[in-house]
Amino acid sequence: MSCCISTMVSGAIALAFLPLVLTFIIRYRYYFVLFYRAVLVRMWYDCTTGLSREERAFQYVLTHAIPGDPESILETFDLWCSKVEFISNIGPKKGKIMDRILSEHCPLTVLELGSHCGYSTVRIARALPLGARLYSVEMDAINAAIAEKIIRLAGFDDDTLIVSPSDEVIPRLRADYGLERLDFVFMDHWKKCYRPDLQALEGSGLLGKGSVVLADNVLFPGAPNFLRHVRKSGLYEWKIHRATLEYSKGIRDGMAELVYQGIK
Amino acid sequence: EEEKVGEEKPEVLSPEELEKLKEEVDERKKLISTLRGKPWPMRKKLLTLRESHEFVEKYEGALGKGKSRKLYAYKVMMLKALMGRPYGSMPRKTVPRADEANAMDFAVLWDFGVITNCLFGYAQYSVLFYGYYNSQRAIGWLKFRMPLSYFLVGVGTVAYSYMVVIRTMARNANEDGGGDNNSFNFSWKMFTSWDYLIGNPETADNKFASITTSFKEAILEEQESRKDDNIHLTRFLRVLANFLVLCCLAGSGYLIYFVVRRSQKFALEGLESHSWWERNEVNMVMSLLGMFCPMLFDVISALENYHPRIALQWQLGRIFALFLGNLYTFIIALMDEINLKREEEEVLKLNMTIWEASLYNGTLGVNSTAPPITVHPADIPRGPCWETMVGQEFVRLIVSDTMTTYITLLIGDFLRAVLVRFLNYCWCWDLEAGFPSYSEFDVSGNVLGLIFNQGMIWMGAFYAPCLPALNVLRLHVSMYLQCWAVMCCNVPQERVFKASGSNNFYMAMLLVILFLSTLPAIYTIVTIPPSFDCGPFSGKSRMFDVIQETLESDFPAWFGKVFSYASNPGLVLPFLLLMVLAIYYLQSTSKSYKQANLELKKKLQTVSRTINKVLTLIQHLLYSLCGTCTDIVCSPESKKKGGEHRAHQGKSNHQIPPSATSPPAPRGHRIPGPLPGNQWQPAPSVQRVPNSQRH
Which EC number applies (chain A) (predicted)? Predict the structure, then answer.
């Protein structure tokens, strides 16, 4: 087969592929922007400053926010995430949805899996009624330290930040902390852990009828096993709140709200 | 299920056995129809299906209910192929010596470019192309007029296509009926969508899905009609988008022009010295551009912010422009090649006279009577047959278009679905919801592809007579392939809307394509003289001279005279004028009928609404009089469908308001009793029965 591709031939056929390349770039421009901000800018800042991303965020919040005011802290965080760098907090739009759900259900016992920098912890704590308790689980010790500082800055007492992986904590919640029932669970840790943790919660008996589980980022990056389990098990009334990814306009994302029905 | 496949069919069946057998067959048929919904593994389903089919077919005949098979007749130009004589029987059907070596070279045939080489090899002299056909006026003992038949079939196909398209359009226009579909849109959809004759659960699911889709469409329309934005920015963006699209069209046109010019250069240098890529560059570039530019148009149209239906129409219009631009660039290049071939022909004719003279020169004197020299047909120099070349180019175009479609389907749909499905387990983000996901089935794009394919067939059918037959084959394969691909790899489109309310949108496009495709063919028939030694019109000065010839020789003299009077411009022009006026008259009367229709519909709506109001009033009066809830009469649907008693009615526990197209059923004083549809004995008097009977 003697198809020696001369430069001019490949030129013409390659030019014919140009519309495809342009389409690709334009259609997925938001993903490219996200990649740039979340990966490239982060690597750049990691090299130039010596701090990690969360420490940089904390520095910024410390210098620009009003201490004791959760609202101001959240706003400063949002500003930093949209202008300077990208951290995957829950963001203002999805945060509003979460606030609405919280105010509808008024839970007294809340479990949060994966607080990262403490943004969602502050957000939940702000919306809780008096007398409610929030238990926050964070796996990484450095992030947990920063989250603790942020929570203290916001004016909440912080003795319920649990530093350990979620699959170890959940079986011991009942024993160590004396919890009987969780009214609200917020999941925002590693997406592949959503399903095992949900199954652990079911197994531990901490979910009662009417307990709400809110899982973030079920569409992007996506938690397909989790969604499959939810659909198949028949234990939940589930609904997906569609919104956009935090701090990004064009990438579609969703939060899954599950209401536990109990075994029929 | 019981295993009855191996059972022997008894010669005589008693009535009880016959009854049992009938029941068994019915049961099997029901199983077959509901098999798809059962939660069994695929292998079990297939096995059950096969067994049930065998059982049903085997025993249905015994019960005397055989099925008849329908035969589908295809329109193939078999007559010409039958009447023409086979390969080798006359000079122009023999392969010339120079090409003999190539034609049967199996190495060539099994090369990667097997199809294109085949075209330039053996098949060149087959029934597929123009050059096969002899110009002998009458063939065989039936005196079959080959050239006349070729011409008439070619022209007749075009005329028949026009007729069919316009007739379909007229029929669709009748069904559409026009009318005001904008008031009470949601109410109409809500109350009149369901079909109460549905008994099969799968049909019910499908109907449910289609009603949901139509609701989504209607909601989208409502949303779109309420948007209002900054008009100047919108206009600027629209102008910008159109400018970008024009740039893209111009770029693609120039690229095609460039590659066609290069391929002509290659052809002059001789095709053998170039690789497969270079030989097929034109077709590849055309197919690739035709595939990728619409995607770019789609992305650019996001700037314009139109209503989805309008955006879709713009998109289709742009794809149309792209296709036409590409095709006409291709045709202009083809014209250049035709001219080249004709010049070659002139040179060859000159050389032939010299060659013939040289043949006789050395052997005979002027007055000798030696036997004429026989020359093997393969040794006579053959003229370059431009018509066959045109046919070949079109066949190549169709083949490359088909290949591109299939490869796109396999890679863009199937491979993508496989990757998404199996990589999803180990990928960091959700492939199904996020980036690649499954490809959507693009209805309008596919319909457009079919229309364009048909346009190319119309264009090339005159010079490659078996092209429609090839296309029928390709369409059959496409149908099964795309059917499988849709079920296996595609998801429905996200935005649900149609390109237009009526079915005539695509038919109108088809008509325009028909016109634009047959234009070049007709132009070449009328202006370019046929080749001197190949095809059914060889030797004539114009192809349509065959009509003249036939009139002169096969019809009586007075017929020719009548025809010449009838084709006089003095007669034809007034006739054309009359037709134009008739069209105008028909158009205006049809418009006035449409208006009248619309008004009648409106009147009917108001009348039925009034009746509805009156009846509601009576109902309120009855409430207040009796002081109890009366169960108003059953739905008017049963009255509308001729009073057919249906079992489903008994299940409907809620009232259905009467549809506005038929007057509601007359309501008398009804005694509260069992639900409609059940048997109830009407009491003779209007006595009130306590409500305890109702549940």
Answer: 2.1.1.6
Upstream peptide bond of A221 is cis (omega within 30 degrees of 0): yes
| pTM for the structure as a whole | 0.67
Residue A76 pLDDT more than 80?
yes
CA A107/CA A118 separation, integer angstroms: 19
Directed axis angle between helix B308-361 and helix B443-460, to 10°? Answer: 20
CA distances (Å), B44 to each of B24, B33, B51, B484, in order? 20, 15, 11, 20
CB proximity A205 to B under 8 Å: no
Return the residue matching tokens 């901000």.
A37
Q: Are B414 and B489 in contact (CB under 8 A)?
A: yes
Going across the sheet that includes A236-244, the strands are: A161-163, A133-138, A109-113, A182-187, A207-215, A252-260, A236-244
From the number of C-beta atoms within 10 Å of its C-beta (0-12, 13-18, 19+), residue B290 rates as buried
- Answer yes or no: do B429 and A22 touch at CB < 8 A: no
Asked if A252 and A245 touch (Cβ cutoff 8 Å), the reply is yes
Output the pLDDT for position B83.
40
Is the confidence at residue B668, as pLDDT, over 50? no
CA-wise closest residue to B669 among B605, B612, B625, B614: B625
Higher pLDDT, B69 or B245: B245
| Per-residue pLDDT tens digits for A78-106 | 999 988 888 888 889 999 999 999 999 98
Q: Which of A6, A28, A222 sits opposite B429 (nearest CB)?
A: A222
| Separation of alpha carbons B154 and B530, rounded Å | 15
Closest CA of chain B from A255, distance in Å: 13
Span B21-55, pLDDT tens digits: 888 888 888 888 888 777 788 888 888 888 888 88
Identify the residue whose tokens are 């004995």: B681
Q: Is the pLDDT of residue A45 over 70?
A: yes
